[in-house]
């Protein structure tokens, strides 16, 4: 209804657009300024965090401490190859760390939830770990072939409650009908696991 009244009031589309242009530009500028202030607040906070982490790794490297390999260390050692500023390196390493720690912690929580929900299966996994590894050390990648029940438990927990909702992209090879919807051949489909 509003669209019909709007078009009846203006005789041409050009008149309608011309009447909106000044207000659209002003509101767009105000909206962008507000967003920029929010962005600058976020940027400053994250810049301090990420550059602090980068400086910590630099200090460890300069003091000749025996530090383990890391993405940040690699970027600092090979900075001339990538032509990145320290700020860019700090944000790149920080974003990788944040993304990795989110997924890792969510995966660990999912496995712990499965252990709590299925205590009989958790007990079997624990028995396998004690039989293969004992009680005095943590498993390593070298033990992976000897603990298939643990591998299966982790895989099943992550299948049961996927960490991300989207899953993997699939492409249809032929036209498909799903609940009265036609999905044409060649369509990329992302299923929602949740």
UniProtKB/TrEMBL annotation:
The protein, known as: Cytochrome P450
Lineage at the top is: Eukaryota, Fungi, Dikarya, Basidiomycota, Agaricomycotina
Q: Which organism is it from?
A: Suillus placidus
Organism domain of life: Eukaryota
Cofactor(s) needed = heme
Asked if the keyword Transport belongs to this entry, the reply reads no
| Homology family | Belongs to the cytochrome P450 family.
The answer to whether the entry has keyword Signal is yes
Q: Which residues form the signal peptide?
A: 1-16
Q: Which GO terms describe its molecular function?
A: heme binding; iron ion binding; monooxygenase activity; oxidoreductase activity, acting on paired donors, with incorporation or reduction of molecular oxygen
Q: Which UniProt keywords apply?
A: Heme, Iron, Metal-binding, Monooxygenase, Oxidoreductase, Signal
Please name the InterPro entries in this protein's record.
Cyt_P450, Cyt_P450_sf, Cytochrome_P450_fung
């Amino acid at each position: 209804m509003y669209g019909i009244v709007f078009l009846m009031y203006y005789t041409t589309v050009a008149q309608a657009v011309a009447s909106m242009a000044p207000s659209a530009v002003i509101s767009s500028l105000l909206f962008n300024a507000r967003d920029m202030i929010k962005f600058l607040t976020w940027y400053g906070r994250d810049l301090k965090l990420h550059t602090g982490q980068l400086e910590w790794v630099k200090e460890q490297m300069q003091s000749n401490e025996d530090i383990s390999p890391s993405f940040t260390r690699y970027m600092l050692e090979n900075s001339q190859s990538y032509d990145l500023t320290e700020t860019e390196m700090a944000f790149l390493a920080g974003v990788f760390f944040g993304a990795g720690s989110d997924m890792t912690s969510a995966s660990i929580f999912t496995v712990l939830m499965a252990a709590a929900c299925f205590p009989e299966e958790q007990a079997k996994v624990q028995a396998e770990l004690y039989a293969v590894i004992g009680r005095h050390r943590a498993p390593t990648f070298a033990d992976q072939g000897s603990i298939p029940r643990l591998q299966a438990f982790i895989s099943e927990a992550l299948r049961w409650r996927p960490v991300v909702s989207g899953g993997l992209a699939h492409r249809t090879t032929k036209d498909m009908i799903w609940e009265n919807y036609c999905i044409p051949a060649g369509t990329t489909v992302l299923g929602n696991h949740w």
